[in-house]
Write a structure and sequence with these properties.
Number of helices of chain A: 11
Strand content of chain A: under 5%
Radius of gyration of chain A: 21 Å
Number of helices of chain B: 15
CATH superfamily of the largest domain in chain B: P-loop containing nucleotide triphosphate hydrolases
CATH architecture of the largest domain in chain B: 3-Layer(aba) Sandwich
Number of domains of chain B: 2
CATH topology of chain A: MetI-like fold
Structural class of chain B: alpha/beta
Number of strands of chain B: 16
Oligomer: heterodimer
Radius of gyration of chain B: 27 Å
Shape of chain B: elongated
Distance between the termini of chain B: 34 Å
Order of helices and strands of chain A: HHHHHHHHHHH
CATH topology of the largest domain in chain B: Rossmann fold
Number of domains of chain A: 1
């Protein structure tokens, strides 16, 4: 196989042989990227859910909860990871805690808006039919809030995929490791590979979530028919 | 039976929605709660299934204080229909109707059979079962709401302005259907409306509530219209109280006048004598076996010699025993004779309903 650069620009940016030689490293980085993203969005969802329920049940707590998650969101990411090191060292936890914290604001807000957006008449009808509060939440309110909640998941996921690369500074980073390699070697190929793959990953994850939403909300598909 | 015993509801902001209410709602009847906005009618309704808790007093349903029943359990035994219907948009029509059976733990076969039965009862085609609520018309959604409320055949139904969200033509049809359905199912129904005409049409008994949740009068519609207990009730019933009352009274309730009747073979002179005695210039022409043939001018009968030779004019609007006096009044004002003619099957003449008779009935 020859290195046949189709254009001058590509010849400067991408050396194809490097990609072939480092296929295993690239795959590992991609898998780690997936792992970090998946785990932190999952943890974020599990944490955000009780916070959202609290805010819906006691509306007065909504502003403080949003303020808290908002404040966390404004901490510069590099600073946050460095601040966490004394507590959790360079373990995966440091990366996961940081990434999870950044998902909370978006997830909590969309869960609250989704649940609040459920038609009052529908909630009252459910109550009048004899739903217990827990059953009403899981069988009526959550399904109806799904489109808004999943919209939040999509934003959180895509944001996290971008943010994962920063954790390369503390020894993780998924595809972000390729940026460090490129930087230390003063060599663009790993950078381009990292950027392209993380963009593709974000796109694929988004598509997956859209598919998930369509699968979970069959009633919404018949709208406008 | 549902009994309110000095029930009061005060909200946290200090407003009194219902004030010391005593009310007995009879089994198998339609009881209407009606009044201007802010009179506490919806609050009263919702205290029955504990969607709102009473501040003081007692509500007893079939001998049991509602506070002694777990709310979800209580509500599954009481059908509920609201104006906005509140169908679950994420569930198909079949799933919507099956809500309470599902909550009550019915098996699939029994639920499916019941859903099919209810669909027929409310007059919806089977193909709507797999659709979602937003794919149905307003009238159809209303029927689904009623079917859902009837699903486990609860003895009591609460209805909060159930026909408020549909246009007047559909509303009138749904009201008629509802009355037909009620003939069949005989539920104890508590029905909230702000529309006094709907109240008079649908109710066996009407509770008129006024601002601050005070019961102004509780009576059957006819009694309410005949003897309003206060100026507030009279105002609320409106200026056309007499007309509304006529709509409730059947023609059979008044004794029809025999009227100036003659046979076609009678002479013109006899027609004149009969008409004079009655105070008219026309006669009712009746054939064999009291068959109504029409009416004729006395002058014409005199001129031609015999009644049968005069022009027989038809009574365009005729009323029957089961029609309302309002229909009789309508027949009067649209007829040259100024009376309504009452007939039975086969156009058999039963007499005349006159304005004097109506006046006597409603005053």
């Amino acid at each position: 196989m020859t290195d046949g650069p189709p254009t001058l620009l590509a010849a400067e940016l991408v050396r194809w042989s490097w990609i072939g030689d480092h296929a295993d490293d690239i795959r590992d980085a991609l898998l780690q990227h997936l792992e970090l993203t998946g785990l932190s969005v999952l943890a974020g969802t599990l944490l955000a859910f009780p916070m959202a329920l609290t805010a819906v049940r006691w509306p007065r707590l909504y502003a403080p909860i949003l303020g808290f998650t908002g404040a966390l969101f404004t901490i510069p990411s590099i600073a946050l990871f460095i601040l966490l090191i004394p507590f959790t060292g360079l373990q995966i936890w440091t990366a996961l805690i940081g990434l999870t914290i950044y998902t909370l604001l978006i997830l909590v807000r969309n869960m609250v808006e989704g649940l609040r957006g459920v038609d009052r008449d529908v909630r009252e009808a459910a109550q009048a039919m004899g739903y217990t509060p827990a059953r009403q939440l899981f069988q009526v309110e959550l399904p109806l809030a799904l489109p808004v909640i999943i919209a939040g998941l999509r934003i959180a996921t895509v944001t996290t995929i971008g943010l994962v690369t920063v954790t390369a500074l503390i020894g993780w980073g998924g595809l972000g490791q390729l940026f460090i390699t490129g930087f230390t070697l003063d060599f663009t190929t790993p950078l381009v590979v990292g950027i392209v793959l993380s963009a593709l990953l974000a796109f694929a994850a988004d598509l997956l979530l859209v598919g998930l939403q369509r699968g979970l909300t069959p009633w919404a598909r018949t709208r406008g028919s | 039976m549902i009994t309110f015993e000095s029930v009061t509801k005060r909200f946290a902001d200090g407003t009194t929605a219902v004030h010391d209410l005593d009310l007995e709602i009879s089994k198998g009847e339609v009881t209407i709660l009606v009044g201007p906005s802010g009179c506490g009618k919806t609050t009263t309704l919702r205290m029955i299934n504990r969607m709102i808790e009473a501040t003081s007093g007692r509500i007893v349903v079939d001998g049991q204080d509602v506070r002694q029943v777990d709310p979800p359990q209580l509500r599954r035994g009481i059908g509920y229909v609201i104006q906005q219907i509140g169908l679950f948009p994420h569930r198909t029509i079949a799933q919507n109707i099956a809500t309470v059976p599902e909550l009550s733990g019915w098996d699939k076969r029994r639920t499916e059979a019941r859903v099919a039965e209810l669909l027929t009862l409310v007059g919806l085609p089977a193909e709507v079962l797999d659709r979602y609520p937003h794919q149905l018309s307003g009238g159809q959604r209303q029927r689904v709401g009623v079917a859902r409320a009837l699903a486990v055949d609860p003895p009591i139904m609460l209805m909060d302005e159930p026909f408020g969200a549909v246009d007047p033509i559909v509303r009138s049809r749904l009201q008629d259907e509802f009355l037909r359905l009620q003939q069949e199912v005989r539920k104890t129904i508590v029905f909230v409306t702000h529309d006094i005409d709907e109240a008079i049409k649908m109710g066996d008994r009407i509770a008129i509530l006024q601002q601050g949740g005070v019961l102004a009068q509780y009576a059957p519609p006819d009694e309410l219209l005949a003897r309003p207990a206060s100026d507030f009730v009279a105002d609320f019933l409106g200026a056309e109280r007499g007309l509304k009352r006529l709509a409730l009274i059947p023609v059979s309730a008044v004794k029809a006048e025999p009227g100036p009747t003659v046979s076609p073979d009678d002479e013109g002179e006899r027609a004149r004598a009969v008409a004079e005695a009655f105070g008219s210039d026309w006669v009712v022409v009746v054939g064999d076996q009291r068959k109504l043939l029409g009416w004729a001018h006395v002058g014409e009968a005199l001129e031609r010699g015999r009644v049968g030779q005069a022009t027989l004019r038809p009574f365009l609007l005729q009323v029957r025993a089961e029609d309302s006096l309002r229909a009789a009044l309508n027949a009067m004002v649209q007829s040259h004779t100024g009376v309504a003619v009452r007939v039975s099957d086969g156009d058999r003449y039963e007499g005349l309903v006159t304005q004097e008779l109506l006046t006597r009935e409603i005053t």
